[in-house]
Design a protein that fits this description.
Elements (H helix, E strand, L loop, with lengths): L2 H14 L2 H13 L1 E13 H10 L3 E11 L2 E8 L2 H6 L2 H30 L3 H17 L15 E10 H6 L6 E6 L8 H4 L17 E8 L5 E9 L13 E10 L26 E4 L4 E3 L9 E3 L2 E3 L10 E9 L6 E12 L10 E10 L6 E4 L1 E6 L27 E2 L13
Antiparallel strand pairs: 1-4, 1-5, 2-3, 2-4, 3-9, 6-7, 6-17, 7-13, 8-11, 8-12, 8-14, 9-13, 10-12, 14-15, 14-16, 15-18
Helix pairs in contact: 5-6
Length: 426
Amino acid sequence: MSKSLLLLVALFTLMLSGYFVANVETTSDSLEIQTATIHLVEPVSIEQILKEVANYNIDLLAFHCQRRFKDRVITDGYYLTPEDKRTLDNNTLQERYWLSYGAMLEDLYRDMEMSTPEMGSEVAWQDYIEQIKQVRQNFSPINGCWEIHNCPTVYVVSILARGEKASLSAMLNSPLVDRVEFSQAQGKINSLAAAPTPNATPAPYNLWVPNRGSIHVQPSVIQGERYVQNRMSWDTAARLSAFGSTSTYEHDFFLNDSDSSVYGPGTYLSDAQDLVGIPIVSHWSSDLPQPYLDTRFGDDDFIKAFTIGSAEADSLQPVVFYYYYIRTPNGDADIDNGCLVAQIGRRVPSNCYTTWCAFGVQGEAIYNCFDYKVDPIPGDFIWVFTRIFLPLVINEQSSLQSLPYPPPSSSYELRPTDCPPYPSPP
């Protein structure tokens, strides 16, 4: 028997004996492909980011930027397209980002104009109008920069990346990096959050649920894409008093993907998601304190969440209209319906601010998921939360699809690691 044949036999024997399995197991943790949010010490340019991720052999999935309006921080996230990932060109990425950012501002401005006749002249709404107009005015000098290939530098505060766990962890050696927060793999439970919550008695809804807001689900100015924008406001400080130092708040918007839906299966927005349940979006933006794009992990399959949560709910202020915006490619349905649920939760551990450290404690339906009254979509909806069923008076000239006050709903307590007990499909 030749030496080469003997070697093959020996290798085959070792494989049968589990030798290679054992060795793969010893290195599987460091070689496991994961995603992580990498927070930077200070804002850095896209050009620097591209060089840094190349040094550590990881893939850039998205980047996040921040701007200020008065005392609020506005965060937005841009997700790389397949074309972006193929080229990874600094100038092209900057142009695509500013194009996407400009489209977001146009979508927000459209919703603001639609809502103003119904929202009135109250202080919170006028402040929101000022915010949108100011940000749009600031953008005006660079609007269209992608057409002449002369866009300003984009500065990034954090990135979402994928790679081997060892490579992502090694990013901590970079002078640009402050910390790395790994996405939680499916099936793994945060043991601290799984522990019973002391004194987790339901908080009265009027101590944490926003009392007014609006929902806008429409085609974007970018062809082939659609968006949802949610706005919410708390009228008084007392309305926010249930939030503590580790509280989270999620304004959970769901589309109905049930086979038995009156419109059939499918969703108006793309329901694509990654391996750990994070929606695959084009762009998101929010002025909620410490915002995060929420995972669908643990949700029922017949509803699809499009939610930005706040990991620092105790920083919410009264008499302010907060918003979040999520844009995706077109979904596989041209008409849809949905629901809206407020959720108070807690952060475990307290120094983590991602979706993987936010655990729901209690939910309250604003538009419940029994009958999907955010209907039909696309549409614009204004709501006022109350347990009293009263008609909502809307200007007859309004083009908004207005709804009555949501019917009475009962609060429910959630186990710390569970999703809300939404009803079965109709």
